[in-house]
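Q: Give me the 3D complex with 2-oxoadipic acid.
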Amino acid sequence: MNLNDIAKRLDDCVLNKQSTASLRTDTPFDLQAAYAIQELGVALREARGEQRVGVKLGFTSREKMKQMGVDHLIWGVITDAMQLEEGGAVDLERFIHPRIEPEVAFITRKPIDRAMNLAEALDAIEGVCPAMEIIDSRYQAFKFTLEDVVADNTSSAGFVLGAMRPVSTDISNCGVNMTENGRLVQAGSTAAILGDPLRCLVQVSQLLAEKGQVLPAGSIIMAGAATAAQAMQKDTVYETTILGLGTVSVRSL
Ligand code: OOG
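A: Here is the predicted complex, encoded as structure tokens.
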């Protein structure tokens, strides 16, 4: 299989809601090729009318690295078709085996067009939102290598943002709770995300600079999960509260 075939194979998994075994056993590919496959996969989504709205980081917390057995920060692309309405409902039939995780998201107000330090990155940000991401690995039982998951656009499938507020207070250590029908299922702190989620902005600016890419103003940056991910069940309300940032929820059908 060439890189195009692999991208098409993973995209078919999205469309048919079917998982696959690792594709690297057929065609070993390295991390650089994995990002090329990711881009080809995003192009297939764009050909269907989806639009890029930002980027997401993965494995920015120990909890996630431990859960998935991977220890390298990765990033992927999010599109408008993945965005869910805050407080709205999402039909799990759209997915293969969805999991949900509590996150922090940033909205940019200036293009991110070069490697930035923390102060510069902060200046490029309009605000911060409590958020949740739905991940849905296209690999059987979420079993993947680093290269596999990058090729699979870092498992991205859905996301929901709560109300945005300015980054006027310290968000480096805010309590994070995620409940399932009111029952606490994940708890942690924003400190789990690289010690301070703001560091994600610096990381994103460096990744963009390495690739010679620009993230336009008005983009969303998902900072990665603060806790392990939770397998989603039908007819369940998932709610995340981040102290000082507010609450975000979504209901599964
Ligand atoms: C990969 C995506 C990881 C995060 O927030 O760490 C991720 C996965 O766990 O399937 O989105």
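A quick observation: The pocket of 2-oxoadipic acid is lined by residues 58-59, 64, 68, 101, 133, 135, 137, 142, 149, 154-155, 224-225 (CB under 6 Å).
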